[in-house]
Design a protein that fits this description.
Elements: H1 5-18, H2 26-33, H3 37-54, E1 57-62, E2 68-73, H4 77-91, H5 106-109, H6 112-126, E3 133-137, H7 142-152, E4 156-159, E5 170-176, E6 183-189, E7 198-206, H8 210-221, E8 225-235, E9 247-256, E10 261-266
Helix pairs in contact: 1-3, 2-3, 6-7
Length: 274
């Protein structure tokens, strides 16, 4: 059924947003709206211009018979600033303090809209890199990993502390916790990763980086590559950081348990946002 251009633009925009980082042949839209490809191309030019003006992302056009159009998620600096400032405000609440300098984050990680926004922030940075899988460790990082993966259109791999019979044979490694210096174990199903896979590591909280360093060691066992590392919150002021290259949204600069005081700043995110 043929519809007016205004209707096509609305439906086309919705379709693109629901299929990020997926190459869509123009025939999908020409058949969907019973319109010529030339008209579809004009529509896509309008959508692309609007996406870029509003900081939603951009459209990548691939010419040729096997080509099409791909929506690359993005975010404006202004919108990213608002989201991260909101995170800083939430995280700085003193009632979040837990023993050992950790913070209660369950409410934030359980907030679908906020987690979705965080996923978009990371996808805006890593969207132009070749990424095959998003990896995290159970359990707090799982919502973030799925949010990022949904924008990158890739699967999620979850590293666990112990093996599950439902995952079949596994690879197990020992790693040293960066903060407690204790030897811990993490396992991953042998079916989870292909050799040479490009993996984006996502985690909710990083102190010294022992857990993330453990995941890097796990990737070495699978002969996979680290495509990037993103953390929601990093803790500052540690003598030794086991991970050097990463992107953080929030930086925890001071925790005073006695005074019930938390100080946070914006992380290094804007050093990487284009």
């Amino acid at each position: 059924m043929k519809i007016r251009r205004s209707g096509r633009l609305v439906d086309m925009t919705n379709y693109l947003l629901q299929h990020p980082n997926q190459l869509l042949p123009l025939t999908i839209f020409s058949e969907r709206y019973d319109s010529a490809k030339s008209s579809i191309s004009e529509d896509l030019a309008i959508v692309k211009q609007t996406f870029e003006q509003q900081g939603i992302g951009t459209l990548l056009t691939v010419p040729g018979a096997a080509g099409g159009v791909k929506y690359i998620p993005g975010v404006s600096s202004e919108e990213a600033t608002l989201t991260i400032n909101d995170l800083c405000h939430l995280i700085a609440k003193p009632d979040r303090l837990l023993p050992g300098g950790y913070l209660y984050m369950t409410d934030i990680l359980g907030h679908p809209q906020l987690v979705n926004q965080v996923g978009r922030l990371f996808a805006a940075v890593y969207g132009d890199r070749p990424i095959d899988v998003v990896m995290t460790v159970a359990t707090k990082g799982i919502p973030l990993a799925y949010a990022v993966a949904s924008y990158l259109n890739v699967p999620v791999v979850i590293v666990r502390r112990d093996s599950k019979v439902t995952e079949g044979s596994t690879v197990s490694i020992n790693y040293v916790s960066g903060s407690s210096k204790r030897i811990q174990t993490m396992v991953l199903s042998k079916r989870s990763l292909d050799e040479g896979a490009n993996v984006l590591i996502i985690d909710d909280f990083m102190k010294a980086g022992g857990t993330i360093n453990g995941m890097i060691s796990m990737l070495e066992e699978f002969k996979a590559n680290v495509a990037g590392i993103g953390v929601l919150v990093e803790s500052e002021g540690l003598e030794e950081r086991l991970v050097d290259e990463y992107i953080s949204l929030v930086k925890l600069t001071e925790v005073d348990v006695k005074a019930k005081k938390i100080e946070v700043n914006i992380g290094n995110y804007f050093n990487f946002l284009k």
